[in-house]
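tl;dr need the bound structure. longer version: we got a ligand (TNX) that a collaborator sent over and nobodys looked at where it sits. i said id run it. heres the input, straight from their email, havent touched it
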Amino acid sequence: MRRRLLAPALLLLATALGCTEAGTAAPAPGPAALPATEPEVRPLGRIIPLPASVRPGGAPYTLTAATRIGVPDHPGVRAVAERLAARLRPATGFRLPVVTDPAADLVLRLDPAAGALGDEGYELRSAPGRLTLTARTPAGLFRGVQTVRQQLPAAVERDTAQRRAWKIAGGTVTDVPRFPYRGAMLDVARHFFTVEEVKAYIDRIALYKYNALHLHLTDDQGWRIAIGSRPKLTEVGAATEVGGGPGGFYTQEQYKELVRYAAAAHIEVIPEIDLPGHTHAALVSYPELTCDGKALKPYTGIEVGFSTLCAGKEETYAFADDVLREIAALTPGRYVHIGGDEAKSTSPADYRTMTDRIQPLVTRHGKQVMAWHQLTGDATPAPGALIQYWGLDRTTAEEKEKVAEAARAGAGIVVSPADRAYLDMKYDEDTPLGLRWAGTVSVERSYDWDPATYLPGVPRSAVRGVEAPLWTETLSTPEHLDTMAFPRLPGLAELGWSPAAGRDWSTYKVRLGEQAHRWDALGLSWYRSPEVPWPAAAEPPA
Ligand code: TNX
């Protein structure tokens, strides 16, 4: 309890002393500031997400102009090594050749027998003259590379040569994720974001070891993915967005490019086609899908829950089949998300009729169903479905119990409580962007909870992980996305990755503050929350 009271107390003190918010030249607000510069060697494991096991010891490893990156003759490992080299070259100015020579000083190796490392775990050994990253899979090596990045000085993220030493503290990190699903969701329907902008978001989540990007591709305000058999979805339905902007969509080639880009970061893209509600843009494109067949006007506001497909029309199922078939064909990943939320103008009987017929379409096209948790209330999830819970602390016990029942019947559960994990909620009353229907979500609030025990009655084994959704009713630029995601996105990654025992807000907020150097080096528009002890001033670029 005492540690919870400490931060507000310091905050009051800071306010009393006249400290102000981001954007002013005043001393850093909030809890006692960190030193302005990073230490020469970051203590081993002082990164986000916190590694499962850290044994510091011995002198550091130093990256030098002579460093070579050694890999086995394996394309997946070479790709990971090339990405690491590409990240390190501009700032270090080193050549960093990737070579198939196990005697290189920085080595990436696969050990198929290292069963304890699972699909994404890795071991990092750091000592003078030798840095070894071992994993069972290329994905594990990729996660380990993010640790290597974060152990190096933040200046390594810059795109121009920096003059400084590049050391990684000595010792061993052995690290595996707590949950297999660590997702970030981006709503490209309310406001459209270009391929390059989505790639930039993928880069951000990759640094924190996320492994799923859920793309909310369709909603009332816009349809964002080309469907060859239904051309009007993009000819008509993509031309709008919230606030009257131009909207936009991805061609199938562009979408595949996004999937490839994410795959290179070992991130699975999960497309969401929101059905049967949130379908106004589709209904505008194909008026024959409405129950009365009347043409509708496009919608650019931010209300929810007014649109629905028509349960009694065969056109509905032909439409869903066309869309889901093409989406499945674009998806190498396991899941297609069919939404199912806020179908407020669909009767419970119609909701069940439609979800009973639509879910098998997903399965028929070779994918597993993912859906918002309303699917457990008014319908029955298909076998193997992944259910995404987005309720609040105050959600009724009855609604939560439906989710628990589905979990006990075999559904997997991903937790993204709106009053904890929604990155579009305002931080506090003064946050200019974002919504507040689920309350304000401070950095501490988004961090200080446990996905494993969050939902009563859900077996631990059913909890697959956590997701951080970013809805974009009020967010129209990449800078807006950054401001809401940073600093909360890294904390949700830690909830998904790190053991519960090592997590603690009072130490986390210090590690979080240290990340600011890296965000500045990467050019992020992050929010200087007064809850966190940020560096006294950003390090100036060299
Ligand atoms: C609820 S979360 C929604 C979205 C909104 C979001 C805004 C969910 C499944 N539905 O339609 O964009 O709140 O925070």
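gonna send this back to them w/ a short note. Residues 267 and 279 are 27 Å apart (CA to CA).
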